[in-house]
Amino acid sequence: MGEFAVVALIRIPDRSHRRLSGDASARKLIEILPGLTRHSCENGSAHGILAELTDTETAHALEHVALEIMAQAGSPRELRGRTEWDFVRDGDGVFQVTIEYERDDVAVGSLRVARDLLEWTMGVGEPVDLGGAIALLGALRA
Ligand SMILES: [Zn+2]
After folding, report:
1. 9 Cα–ligand 1 center, Å
2. With 80 as the cut, is the pLDDT of residue 23 above it?
């Protein structure tokens, strides 16, 4: 990981929301963020990102969605993320998502939008004005 990274603790109390599984949610995410297909995953998985998104930890999907939102808002595509968890250390259902950043405000904002988007994907949140959110994040860089 690079020198500058933000670490977000993502608490997911509901066990059924800890994994993202099935084509439907993956397709939903890729439909609204086609740039996700350009991502590669560095978790050692032999699968491509599409296969990853159909069956992975929700927090890992959040990592990639946040990085893609950051890229859409003008951040460098080279920025990387990492998702880890240690429920004994951090608490049950707490995932640690680390995101490299060029601007910390854009990274934190992207994580928030990614959370809203994931919640909507899982049917537990309101629709997200993604274009508007990306425009606001992009304006932070101006
Ligand atoms: Zn990954």
Report:
1. 17
2. yes
